[in-house]
């Protein structure tokens, strides 16, 4: 029986960019291997995918750019990579291709593969409900089916003729409902009674350049006001050489514990986090952590995004709650002083933290859907299995 299942296992093409995509894809691969133990997946991926047996033809950090300025600087390289990958996938003809987020790269690739007769699935509905709603037309051309993380998305896509399933968020399955703070602090050698601030400036090089300086300056201000505070800063693979000079420049006298990865340990261990807008804010919400969401980027990118935003929220916890349950300090508002004051406001207000904990627990239950199983069910339907 096991041999039959392995022989019947599909070959899957995949592309995931950045740390968040690598994590999502690795969790999906776990489900695929449970359903089809002999599944073979290849394409572009990161270390977490590789740990699940993924065959990375190119590493995911090739796609770690953000915004139009960064993309233009790397456009030729990205287009050449997409062409080479498409050629290889069309030659090898996997049973299905799954694009994990990265819409600006994956939509064009998926459209080409679909035209060539391959089944295509896009995992993570692009945030057409937040900005760039015109992307739904590209999505309709690119994907046979969309796996949606949030419950309101399939109905929205159906209005545009796009087949989709709500599969929940795999992070809601992976992150425990009860936060193991004591165990995380023990792993990080942090005192059980200390007040801990996690600094998460992002996993892209451009985010480190634009966000980390202000975040580190805020840490320096916090340390001045509360010398007993402890700081942890998880760093994505390959980015430590960018962080260390910034630490020396902006927070030379602050005891910041730099971690290689371990973002989940940092979030579990902390009392509050200063965090870049993105998937990490949802992780922080699932860890029931008070946070101050921030973002800075090249001013041209900011003008472009700000003009096209459809709603007042940027951070996922606020988007899903439909209100500002946590503060957002974006672009010019993201001063070190404002970041530090917002963090202190959380540390000084226990009832507010408890209300947020209850709100985030409800959100966790909503998103906890056994995503790997539901996603595999949807993929089996796409494949006609």
From TrEMBL:
Keywords: Glycosyltransferase, Lipid A biosynthesis, Lipid biosynthesis, Lipid metabolism, Transferase. It comes from Vitreoscilla filiformis. Condensation of UDP-2,3-diacylglucosamine and 2,3-diacylglucosamine-1-phosphate to form lipid A disaccharide, a precursor of lipid A, a phosphorylated glycolipid that anchors the lipopolysaccharide to the outer membrane of the cell. PANTHER family: LIPID-A-DISACCHARIDE SYNTHASE (PTHR30372), LIPID-A-DISACCHARIDE SYNTHASE, MITOCHONDRIAL-RELATED (PTHR30372:SF4). This is Lipid-A-disaccharide synthase. Belongs to the LpxB family. Pfam families: LpxB. It comes from the Bacteria. One of its GO terms (molecular function) is phospholipid binding.
């Amino acid at each position: 029986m096991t041999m039959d299942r392995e022989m019947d296992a599909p070959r899957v093409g995949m592309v995931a960019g950045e740390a968040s995509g690598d994590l999502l894809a690795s969790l999906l691969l776990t489900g695929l291997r449970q359903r089809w133990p002999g599944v073979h997946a290849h394409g572009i991926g990161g270390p977490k995918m590789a740990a699940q047996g993924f065959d990375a033809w190119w590493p995911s950090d090739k796609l770690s750019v953000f915004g139009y300025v960064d993309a233009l600087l790397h456009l030729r390289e990205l287009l050449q990579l997409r062409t080479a990958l498409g050629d290889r996938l069309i030659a090898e003809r996997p049973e299905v291709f799954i694009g994990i987020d990265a819409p600006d790269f994956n939509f064009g690739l998926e459209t080409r593969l679909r035209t060539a007769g391959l089944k295509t699935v896009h995992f993570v509905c692009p945030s057409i409900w937040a900005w760039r709603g015109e992307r739904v037309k590209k999505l309709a051309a690119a994907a046979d089916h969309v796996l949606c993380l949030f419950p309101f998305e399939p109905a929205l896509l159906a209005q545009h003729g796009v087949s989709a399933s709500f599969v929940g968020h795999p992070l809601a399955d992976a992150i425990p409902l009860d936060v193991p703070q004591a165990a995380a602090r023990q792993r990080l050698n942090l005192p059980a009674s200390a007040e801990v601030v996690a600094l998460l400036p992002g996993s892209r090089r451009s985010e480190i350049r634009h966000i980390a300086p202000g975040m580190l300056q805020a840490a320096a201000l916090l340390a001045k006001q509360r010398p007993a505070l402890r700081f942890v800063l998880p760093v994505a693979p390959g980015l430590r050489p960018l962080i260390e000079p910034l630490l020396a420049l902006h927070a030379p006298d602050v005891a910041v514990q730099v971690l290689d990865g371990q973002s989940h340990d940092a979030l579990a261990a902390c009392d509050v986090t200063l965090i870049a807008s993105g998937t990490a804010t949802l992780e922080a919400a699932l860890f029931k952590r008070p946070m101050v969401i921030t973002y800075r980027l090249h001013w041209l990118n900011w003008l472009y995004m700000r003009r096209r935003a459809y709603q007042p929220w940027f951070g996922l916890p606020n988007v899903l709650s439909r209100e500002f349950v946590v503060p957002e300090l974006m672009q010019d508002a993201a001063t070190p002083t404002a970041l530090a004051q917002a963090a202190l406001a959380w540390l000084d207000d226990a009832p507010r933290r408890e209300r947020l904990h209850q709100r985030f627990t409800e959100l966790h239950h909503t998103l906890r859907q056994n995503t790997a199983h539901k996603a595999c069910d949807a993929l089996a339907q796409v494949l006609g299995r």
